[in-house]
Amino acid sequence: MHLLEAQNLSKCYNLRNYQFGKTARLEAIKNISFTLDAGQTLAIVGESGSGKSTLARQIIGIEAPTNGRVVFNGEELNYKNKKHRKLRFKNIRMIFQNPYESLNPQARVGSTLEEVLLINTQLSAKQRKRKIEETLTKVGLLPEHQYRYPYMFSGGQRQRIAIARAIILDPKIIIADEPLSALDVSIQAQILNLMQELQEQMKISYLFISHDLNVVEHIADNVMVMFHGEVVELGSIEHIYDDPQHPYTQALFASTPMYRRRFPDFAQPQFSKRKGVGEEGCCFAKRCQYCQSHCEQEAPPLLSDQNGHEIACFNVNSDQKQAS
Amino acid sequence: MQLLRVENLSVTYHSSSGPLSIVERLSLKMDEGEILGVIGESGSGKSVFALSIMGLLSTKMVMRADYLNLDGEDLMKMSAMDRAVYVASKAAIIFQEPQASLNPCFTVSSQLDETLSIHQGGTRKNRRVRALELLDSVGITKPEILLKLYPHQLSGGMNQRVAIAMALACKPRLLIADEPTTALDVTIQAQILELLVNLSQSEKAGLMLITHDFALLSENTDRIGVIYSGQLMEHAATENILNSPRHPYTRALLDSVPQLGDRHVKGSRLFALQGQIPAMDQLPVGCRLGPRCPKAEKQCVNKPELLSVENHGKVRCHLAKPSPTVKKPLEQEEQ
């Protein structure tokens, strides 16, 4: 049994006033399925606007998905069921991108952390205080830091506080939405080390959203590449980093300086066009250099090869069929 | 030919609690057509250094330099007005956030036209032709349509291209790019960087790339300067910096980025510098990296000098052995 399973998750937003009063439906994410096991890290890679954060919102339960199910520990989580919500909030926590904005500037660190315990547990005041002190030490801060305000801390320390807020309930899953991109290089390494340490101590699973391919290679066990709300490639780290198949994944590697040397044959995308709202076809067709006529009419399904490496591309999948 | 020569440039910020030295006696040289990388954490003074060359510092900051030579003229000997005109015709700067560096109230055409009318003059027709040329040179496919649009109608990458086109309007000899790709998507980053490098090669202009990402610099730059806390820590050719950094800070910066092929292994950790960059009013005694440095020794409480190291470049560290023959301090201690 998997710890977390997403089955065919979709989210549509109705855009009122899309163009001069016309309404439109925007499919922010489309038919996304994946599994996450205990102690594992699944990295979600993609450029901005590819639906990474929307997916995180469906998993954590801020919004109800239009279609599809989120299954946690074998139990389907219903968005409206109060019991399920409590279960979800206790076990799935989130770290946000920018620690300067995700912490309440008017609350002391202690009360920010205590609020989580007040809502989700029945601990007494004394126990809560002890838990806060324990958690602060765990993330590399000092117990007396609970009496301070967020502005007294540097960016790296604030991100540690945000991590403390996420782990204080001993969750099973943490969704980290670009936790490093607001931080300096030398601080990034500190936070990354801390996250790995916590994972090994507490057996936390991470859903690690990032666009930094170096960091993903360092931390992830499985990688999911998203483009325009769809999964284009999903597989283990060896699959994606040793043998990327989808043209978009290849383009991502080609545009990162360090990886260009490893994959010298991959072409960089020439255009930055995207499929418009409501258009049919493969999500990557407009940028793809291998695009053929049927790519623009029909969306390729996400097919898996024998090793569990899933790719959504007509060219790659038909090649494999011929080979086998 | 030498394009830029900076000797002992210092910038002081007059805060309410007294003057703070933000950039301390920085010396750099750039040749024509050279690409220089400047790397450092935020708060290290790399942007202030760029602004001080352009003369765009806020009124609370004061710049002093022994020598600031841009394309054959010493800027320090000019009056403020002359200097502004001269710098504007010789150098241009591109900022980090393209959305913020363009005026949201005006179309691309009117903003480009304003720059062109100042630098080039001529009739409106000529300026329009030149504007189309510029947009074409930065890789925009349909410039006629783009001219009528407002910045909010364009994507980040497109806006950055417009900003680059505006910077090129004066045919600059020196192009300073202050984190030009930080706000952009990964796939767009590569395109913008390639564009900048190609432009500097074709125009034989100098390009100063300011960033905090070693990966960006590793491919294109000729030399790299590492700035920490307002001081130049290491300054050498790119291969030397990447392959055998002599300063512990450069080493740490390189090590704190995951290496290629460095997969998730249980218990493996990245190297991380402890602590954070010191505030300018609470600088440590001696070497500014001292309290964070993994190799710090007793002698590090004395201020290290920026010394030449044989077959490498210049390094500011007691532990990097300077070659005995060239042991000549490049900066004198302030009296």
TrEMBL record, chain B:
GO CC annotations, alphabetized: plasma membrane
Keyword ATP-binding carried by entry: yes
GO MF term set: ATP binding; ATP hydrolysis activity
Cellular compartments annotated: Cell inner membrane
Mode of membrane association: Peripheral membrane protein
Alphabetized InterPro entries for the sequence: AAA+_ATPase, ABC_Ni/Peptide_Import, ABC_transporter-like_ATP-bd, Oligopep_ABC_C, P-loop_NTPase
Keyword ATP-binding tagged: yes
EC number from the UniProt entry: 7.4.2.9
Catalytic activity from the UniProt record: a dipeptide(out) + ATP + H2O = a dipeptide(in) + ADP + phosphate + H(+)
GO biological process terms held by the UniProt record: peptide transport; transmembrane transport
Domain ABC transporter: 4-254
Signal peptide: none
Keywords in alphabetical order: ATP-binding, Cell membrane, Membrane, Nucleotide-binding, Transport
Family: Belongs to the ABC transporter superfamily.
The protein's name in its UniProt record: ABC-type dipeptide transporter
Organism, as annotated: Aliikangiella coralliicola
